[in-house]
């Protein structure tokens, strides 16, 4: 039996309960799911790459088939390097669909052996985005219901 490996790429700035929901769902479908954290200097993340990797490792510690990696460059190259034939993407709302469809087609144009699977988070996580979390957090609001509790301390220590 062949192993099914997938990549779930993103900046995860920070990882949210919505991300965690998609990771858990993907973990039930694939033998191995790589949470691939993009350096993404263009997006100017709030948290540095090392901190985002630490957050993801803490948040997914109890999920046995999840591996946390970082990467720079094209997602399809990350797939090739890690033996993944599937990219997992989350869809929260119709507004995400057009952008995600373009990215999916672009990835297929680069490597037609790599498929994209779209997963929707549960309704309770559907509104959560890293952007919303960062905005609330910057204004000293409570984000404890939006992110895994394990990462709050890392968020606080990296923003002091």
Describe the structure.
- By secondary structure, the chain is an alpha/beta fold.
- It has one domain: Rossmann fold.
- The protein is 41% helix and 18% strand.
- The chain has six helices and five strands; from the N terminus they run E-H-E-H-E-H-E-H-E-H-H.
- Helix 4 links the parallel strand 4 and strand 5.
Q: Topology of this protein?
A:
Layout: E1 5-10, H1 17-29, E2 32-38, H2 49-59, E3 66-71, H3 75-82, E4 86-90, H4 94-110, E5 115-119, H5 130-138, H6 152-158
Parallel strand pairs: 1-2, 1-4, 2-3, 4-5
Q: What's the gist of this structure?
A:
The chain has 6 helices and 5 strands, in the order βαβαβαβαβαα. The protein is of the alpha/beta class.
Question: How many angstroms separate the termini?
Answer: 49 Å
- Counting structural domains, the number is 1
Gross morphology:
globular
Count of helical stretches: 6
CA radius of gyration is: 15 Å
CATH topology: Rossmann fold
Q: Which regions have little confidence, pLDDT < 50, spanning 5+ residues? A: none
Descriptive labels:
alpha/beta; 160 residues; five-stranded parallel beta sheet; Rossmann fold; 6 helices
């Amino acid at each position: 039996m062949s192993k099914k490996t997938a990549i779930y790429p993103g900046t995860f700035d920070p990882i949210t309960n919505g991300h965690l929901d998609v990771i858990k769902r993907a973990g039930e479908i694939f033998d191995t799911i790589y949470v691939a954290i993009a350096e993404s200097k263009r997006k100017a993340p709030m948290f540095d790459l090392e901190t985002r990797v630490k957050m993801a490792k803490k948040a997914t510690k109890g999920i046995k088939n999840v591996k946390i990696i970082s990467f720079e460059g094209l997602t399809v190259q990350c797939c090739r390097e890690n033996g993944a034939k599937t990219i997992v993407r989350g869809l929260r709302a119709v507004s995400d669909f057009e952008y995600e469809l373009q990215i999916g087609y672009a990835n297929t144009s680069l490597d037609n052996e790599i498929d994209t699977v779209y997963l929707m988070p549960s309704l309770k996580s559907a509104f959560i985005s890293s952007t919303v979390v960062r905005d609330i957090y910057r204004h000293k609001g409570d984000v404890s219901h939006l992110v895994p509790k394990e990462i709050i301390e890392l968020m606080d220590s990296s923003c002091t």
